[in-house]
Sequence to fold (403 residues):
Amino acid sequence: MCKKMNEEKKKRKAVIIGCGIAGPALAIALKHVGIDSEIFEATKTTPNFGILSLTSNAICALKLLGVFEKIKTDNSPNAYFYKHDGRLLKIPDMVSELEKHNLDDGIIVHRSNLVQELKEKAVSNGTRINFEKKLVDIQEEPDKVIAIFEDGTEIEGDLLIGCDGPFSKTRNIVLSNSPLPTYSGNIWTGVDLGIYKKFDLLPNAFHMTFGRKAYSGTLTFSDSRTIWWTNVPCPENTLEEFKKMSPGNWTKKLSELHKDDHARMLDSIKSGNNKHVRIPLYDIPYLPTWHRNSVCLIGDAAHATSPYIGQGAAMAMEDAIVLAKCLRDIPESNNAFVKFEKLRKKRTENIVKISQQTGSLITTSNPIKQLLRNLLLPRTITSSIKKLNWIFSYKISWDEKIK
Fold:
């Protein structure tokens, strides 16, 4: 009996701030290594719009978290690229190129589905998720850390992990001198068109269009449900003006942006019925450190990235598993955080940098750069898959010990 009581006494508890992808993924991973956790989310619910392209490394993480079977789909779409006028650019078959490197061709999921499955798995493991809990302060004591919320709630834990996104309150409190997120110069805007069968869009496929002024795309699922999006160039000094623009005026803005492009651009915009979501894109290329004492950052709070190579969700889930392993194998939390940062920092910083470079290439509105990009695209795709193999082939195992 005494032995059991001592074991219970030694069991650690983590306070997790944020319930996007990183938060519940971390709760699942921590439970796997014998650490309890509780999640606190500032909003009433979690984001429910958007799609995620999950590559081989993300699939590996999903399997380790035990949710892959729940979210796997038959949607492993190919990709087609078009000039602004709708003419198809000839490129290698993406699925075949991935197979050459023994990589999964990946899956496409709705962000809301992934978040929901992660949340359900975490809850089924005994994790409590609290909504409308806005973090305002963190107090660190020698034997505990205390999270203080706007409504007066105070929660104690042995460690606290910030999974609260690019504008992390956790980071602002414990690493207040860290660099701010870097605005990319683009607003991602998109809309779910529902069943959309116009313009002979191939099912189960990405259709990417290099517009005159903006890069745009559609993803058409096998049932013809289609999501359309575009990247709106927006100087930082006009960002607030763009964010506050009425839905009708935003639609007019998008129509003006794509007026010189193929007719399906304007039709997609019109079919959106003024319901376009707007998300300014930010990166965190570098932070001096991700941790302080009993507090650590993971996911977008540590290394937010633009979506151009589809690695944001993958990095968050990788972080969750690697951090859990560090806490399992290294006794002191602070030492575990040091090791975690050493294992993850270089990889994530390089991915953020490559995503920025990719974004600059595909979203350019410079006519000369556009011409060169279109001419070199076939070779670029082939070489990119080879060069980025280190990202996609990344594997984690629960059995491997952290030293």
